[in-house]
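Lecture 7 notes: from sequence to structure.

We start with a single chain of 403 residues. Read the sequence below before looking at the structure.
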Amino acid sequence: MIRNRNIIIISLQSWDIDIGSNCKDIAKEFAKYNKVLYINSPLDRFTIWRERKNPKVRKRLAIIHGKLTDLIEEEKNLYVLYPRTVVESIGRLPWNRAFDVMNRINNNRFANQIRTAIERLHFKDVILFNDGNMFRGFYLKELIKPAQYIYYKRDHYLVMDFWKRQGTRIEPELMMKSDLVLTNSLYLNNMARKYTSRAYYVGQGCDLTLYNPERKIPVPPEMASIPGPVIGYTGALVSMRLDLDLISYIAHNNPSWSIVLVGPEDDAFRKSDLHRINNVYFPGNKPPEDMPAYINCFDVAINPQVLNEITRANYPRKIDEYLAMGKPVVATKQETMSIFSGHTYLASGEQEYVALIGKALNENSPELKIQRENFAQTHSWEKNVEKMGEIMEESMNSTKNIQ
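Now the structure, written as tokens:
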């Protein structure tokens, strides 16, 4: 584990995000032995216009206008900065030169806020850890001059329309000039290796204190009346990641199973026929700390992904969470799932999904439960960040030796 350093983290996810966040977990782990400054991405003008009634946007505006403090100590050694600046909305600009000019302006505004926090916290020789914020972090290596600049790639952003136009040009350039690129999936690491030899696969962690089957967790009230067996999923219910037709097939063809989908829904899910199937239940969006209580009620946990460039690249964090709770897991078969193959049922197609859910229900045993829990223990955030730290230290030592 890297120790006694000053680490600045920038991320696309704000600290007050409503769902679980890899980057927040990483920040908390780093803060056990280092001083950490987690910086929220600044507000952009389009977000202010589109979501001006959103309480979080109102809070940000109050901070920008000096009505609320911008720098908060969340816990020991961990600080969160809400930048007192607004950046321009440029992600979809089609003209490269105009984008570059405006992006440098945005980066300068962002960097000025970071510098003020560095001075107030008396940070020296900082490590800058960029969690996917390719646009607003593009020039920060030059503007902040960190001792080490790390780009953490844990999503295939370039398949998304917002990032595709400029990101296909910007992200490779950013990876080439970063001191390190860390990835959470083999798929993403292979992509990064096209642009830099300094790319490393580090996997991902899971909060094993939260997802602990030995904790006494009360049954959520809405789960008490749902008949078993319960086949469940937790996480964002978005059609670009989950197969609506597959979930519908499972429910229609197994009316004795209760399909429970816990999480916030996108428009496709809200409008889908799933809401009209009697054995499908939607408990709604729940805070991350409540998720173990729902998983604890599952007889089988599922990850019914649709196969596309996004899901093939992502590390399925929820699989670790399911296994940590000792649950049988049926998931869509794909490259990233290969690391879980000895402890999960991997399905291709609707009929195989149903067959393997049935098999998981029939085969479950106390011995298999313990095996799953033990495997999940190897994927703790502590071990994940320890691996990152080893790579970071080795890289810094190599640089010193060269100099």
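The chain has a mean pLDDT of 93. Keep this in mind for problem set 3.
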